[in-house]
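Cross-posted from the bioinformatics board.
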Amino acid sequence: MFGVTGDLARKKLMPAVYDLANRGLLPPAFALTGFARREWGREDFAQVVHDSVKKYARTPWREETWKQLSEGIRFVQGSFDDPEAFAELKRTVEELDERRGTGGNHAFYLSIPPSAFPQVIGQLRDSGLSDPKEGTWRRVVIEKPFGSDLTTANALNDVVSEVFPADAVFRIDHYLGKETVQNLLALRFANQLFEPMWNSQYIDHVQITMAEDIGIGGRAGYYDGIGAARDVIQNHLLQLLALTAMEEPASFGASDLRAEKEKVLRAVTLPDDLSTSTARGQYASGWRGGERVGAYLEEDGIPEDSITETYAAIKVEIPNRRWNGTPFYLRAGKRLGRRVTEIALVFKKAPSPYFQQIEGSDVGSNALVIRVQPDEGVTLKFGSKVPGSTMEVRDVTMDFAYGNSFTDESPEAYERLILDVLLGDPPLFPRHQEVAYSWKILDPITEFWATQEQPEQYRSGTWGPTGADDMMARDGRMWRRP
Amino acid sequence: MIIDLPDTTTVELNAELLKLRKEGGVITVGRVMTLVIDATEADVDEAITTANIASREHPCRIIVLSPHVDGRRLDGQIRVGGDAGASEVIVLRPSLDAMEHADTLITPFLLPDAPIVVWWAGVVPLVPAATGIGAMAQRRITDTKISQTPSAVLCSLADGYTAGDTDLAWSRVTRWRALLASALEQVPDQRVTKARIHGDLNSPSILLLGAWLRRTLGCEFEATYDREATGLVSVCLDTPSGVISIVRPDGLNATLSQPGQPAHVIALPARTAGECLTEELRRMDDDPVYGDALQQVAHC
């Protein structure tokens, strides 16, 4: 694991490894080698893993599990430009192969900035670490962002694919490890109920939202110049769109699933006028959850004239047989009302002259909402009569929460993903082609935005800039309040 | 069950709600609206009791805002199950500064898509729709009964009237309006020549009922007040066919007299705040009749 001193490694990856071990899903020979510049010994690193597991693991602490796991923990100190350090790494893992019987299978987890990829991957090749012996495998795991536009994504892919074959590259998008996203496949294809209406005849439009209530925190260096669209729309939201809009795959095997996702991503088109079909904003100061919070432009390390958006909303169309005429609206932002990710299919209004005219009724459109996080589940909204002597209708909801129906705790996204890497099970991981199609969708928008002035300011704690509401109003629609 | 969360954040409160939902399995299922209670200067428990009565007909999530007079932290409390009627109650005690931004404070707790109703239990805002929480809401419910100078407050409400505003003083006379309207339906000649109203001196309900009569009937109008009376005592409508009157001297039972019919005794006690709130929550669209009556009050 490269980048073991990072937040992600400490808060998610190491605890996930422990949880997997605790659930009995790791082979007894499993070993974890950390690589970082810091002057640590093996014990220091083991202590770091120990502490982060104790603090962040989801399964209970078991001394035996830890003892078993800690015996396989190693640490190699060095910088990415030091061939000697990689030679040491090679000796370490080979020693583990012999002593613990890991069997010569190695997965390299690059929890590092993309700028360091060429160097690290080059070192892996030069040291011979990336060459599998007969009957063993080498896999590499990389984290988003997969580039910042099509050109850089292609360049990044060239670097990686030069050393590792396509099926050995695992692009981690932790959203796709979420139970609900997989459940989306089950909801759509294991049921007969939804499929007949899953098209433009009944669905007016689809809204995919990913809202965070926090600001950029200490990530100014990463975030400025990237923005909400590149940070989450390109990967998470477009993946959710693909899963929502695709046709049924022939099987849930990796290649069939990817084929359908790629097909639908390739069919996505942008409206002609991007100035009326996109919106962006930057959070201004305000009060969030009873505390005063500052504006994006006041954050440390953010230039006053930054045009990076912290809120992005776009409209896309999929003019195929299923979706022609049903737009998809995607929005993502920071410092919004609350943390929520969801897919909402908003139905057309019932063509009933009687119910459309009832005075006092507030019948809205039906909606099927797939809540991705928090509180994973599905909500169905429909109209029902208010008890009483008059015919009044109001919206009610039918609610399914995973927490209630399946009491067993669902595994953490990273647990699932790490396990899939070890098993070599790729359906959840996007291939480069999907990444490239996503950038093709987003590039015209970010290029257009780069020519515009500073984004509109929106008050922290609200649901985004008025420009985004105007964008929906032009189509006669409204954002849901998630 | 009452769970206190002193010195907390909205994120923590939401996590607690989620935990309760996972363990209890009932919260938020089937709620049809979010009722926000601004309990500034009001008795929190009394307001919650009233709202719980309304929640039996309208299962809702109740958010109570009750600012600290001093203190800088946010205290929270969650009530579910037996302590929350047919709803779940979130009590927020923010600092006065944070109360200025109550809209973003309650945003994390609003039910998705569901309509928002705001009820001011202890104060009457001069322009309800201009407040942060009022601007988000479909319906804004004030209660001018708590004010010392109801006619001045009604005038201010009339100036700032926005569709969706309503007042509990108006709901208190709903039954009177219904009785008068149905009695008038039954007389042969329905041209009212004069309307008379008698009651308490400082009652916004009487002002609103009088304004409604003037506006709808467009006839001569006379109001007499009596410091000793409690609430509305009588309403009389003179028509060519005879006099229609509802007289309630004891504040409990009223006598309805109409031409050609024997007098009926009707139980007509003052309505409780719970009943009035329940009635107001029944409809989510605006009440133009109230809007008209309010404008009429302001004209005089």
